[in-house]
Amino acid sequence: MAKAENDHNVYILGAGFAAEAGLPVVKDFMNRMRDAHAWLEAQGDRKREQEAIEKVLEFRLKAAAAAYRVQMNVENIEELFSLASASVGETLTEEVILAIAATVDFARRAAPRSSQSTRVGVLDMQGWTKPKNWTRALGDELGGSGLGQSSHYWHNCPQHELHLAIMCGCFSLPPNGRRNTFITFNYDLLVEDALNSLGISFDYGIPMDSVSFEDMAGPLQPQHPVLSVLKLHGSVNWSLRQPSEFRQWPRSFPRMRSFGDYDRLSAAGEIPLLTPPTWRKVFSAPLSSVWDAAVVALKTATRVVILGYSVPETDHHFKYLLAAGLQENVSLRKVFFVNNGLEAKPEGDELKLRLSGLLREEHFKQGVVETINKTAHEFLGGADVWVAPGSYRTQIGRPINSESSDSITPPFVVQSAGVSGLLSR
Fold it and tell me: Is 60 exceeded by the pLDDT of residue 74?
């Protein structure tokens, strides 16, 4: 039986979490892919990805024949990816992977930065280091907050970095035994980029003898990780070596390459390691290790926070991942299911139906599972100001400032975009 844990947060991130940083959700992905095609054409030097998108769009037209007889949405990139991997073969699967990776890259570059700015006030504290993506704000635009703001140096930071900083507990003193694990279904590098900026080391849950790290940027230190980022469907900066490359080497020779970003992988002529959420999912050795690590993490989770994941019908594996991880868990206190589509009609009703098929009804009634109709920003940042100890940040054990902090001049105060006032707890 797994040992009891008092403060291990497992965050499960879906497309809705990345959407707040400008990345497309599934229902918008095909249109963003069409936008990416025009952008790639304008770049002039990315013809390979441009042609991949053309082939995917051509396949989407042919897939309409499958939709005539089988209930499927050919405008859903996950269903299209699954169909390609199940029926056409490796060649088109690679084209779909390249098209997805190029679309993610385009969306990240095109995301508006101005709407994602957050202001963080930090006391002139000894030992605090400014994250590399934070910039000093000019002047004091907040006025009389009553929080001793004149003692703080104000910084602008990307909103998603605030989210990751809160989830990692960067704004409060860590109690003994605090742990964080990120399980994500997203292919993008949003989490890694934020952790690198915050100076937090991490690993991918892959044995060191199965991966080689190529020109990694930032403080990734696989030998001494602070936390794990477990990417269940692969990543745009991972690739598998071709079998011919390592047949002559011992079995322990790395089979997977991890690059600093997608640009470096693309420059090396590699194809990203992405896996569709499909019934035909066959894991390579590296991804199998990632799923195993996710099961191990869930066995000791104190809180499971599911952010922006819509429980798609195509991904049947998630149900059994939860079952395998939680069957021996003696530490679980709460599951937070956070999705701002819960009250939408009819999509919210369908989401609730899928969720009820995933978790037992009595857990909802007993409050072990709580559904929260909020975005990740509303959940972590909160729409309330001068927030009480009952905030969700406090409930997951990751407040802004420790409970013992000075309430008049706390170490950190935050003003988020679109929020009137300051957050200090």
Answer: yes
